[in-house]
Design goal:
Layout: H1 9-22, E1 25-31, E2 34-46, E3 49-62, E4 67-80, E5 85-94, E6 97-106, E7 109-115, H2 117-128, E8 132-135
C-alpha cells in the first residue's frame, strides 16, 4: 500500500476491536496505540466442576514505523471432577508460530479452540491496512 493509503492508528484500533468481537471476545484500548483483550474459546460446566480456555492478546501500534506488535497466549483453567471428555487436537508449527485446533465434547457441553486463527485475522487486517505485522514471542 502506498503511504498515502495507510489506515490511521485510531481506525486500525477500531477494526482490531471489531475483529475481537467477531471472534467472540472483548477488547479495550489501554493506552495510546495499545489494545488488549480476551477470547473465550472453550467453556464447559458440569455438576461438579467446569473448564474454560481463553486466549489473551495485546497489540501495540507504533505510528512512527507503522508497525503492529502482536502477542497472544492461551490460558486454560479447570476445577472440580471432570466428566469423561472426548478431545481432538491438531497442532502445526512454522518457526515460532503455532496454530492449534482443539475440540472438546463432554456431557457438560464443550467447545472449539483455534489458537492462531485470531492472530492470522489480525495479521491480514494489519497488512491490508498498510502497516507491518510483528509477531512477538515471549
Amino acid at each position: 500500500m502506498a503511504a498515502s493509503s495507510l489506515l490511521s492508528e485510531a481506525a486500525l484500533l477500531s477494526r482490531l476491536s471489531s475483529i475481537a468481537s467477531a471472534n467472540g471476545g472483548t477488547a479495550s484500548t489501554v493506552n495510546d496505540g495499545t489494545i488488549t483483550g480476551t477470547l473465550t474459546a472453550i467453556k464447559a460446566k458440569w455438576l461438579l466442576g467446569g473448564r474454560k480456555v481463553m486466549i489473551t492478546f495485546r497489540c501495540t501500534l507504533n505510528a512512527a514505523s507503522h508497525e503492529a506488535h502482536f502477542r497472544e497466549s492461551a490460558i486454560e483453567s479447570s476445577w472440580g471432577l471432570p466428566p469423561p471428555t472426548f478431545t481432538v487436537e491438531t497442532t502445526f508449527q512454522t518457526g515460532a508460530r503455532v496454530t492449534t485446533a482443539r475440540t472438546d465434547k463432554a456431557a457438560g457441553r464443550g467447545g472449539r479452540l483455534e489458537f492462531g486463527r485470531f492472530r492470522e485475522d489480525v495479521e491480514k487486517l494489519v497488512n491490508e491496512s498498510g502497516w507491518k505485522f510483528v509477531f512477538e514471542v515471549a
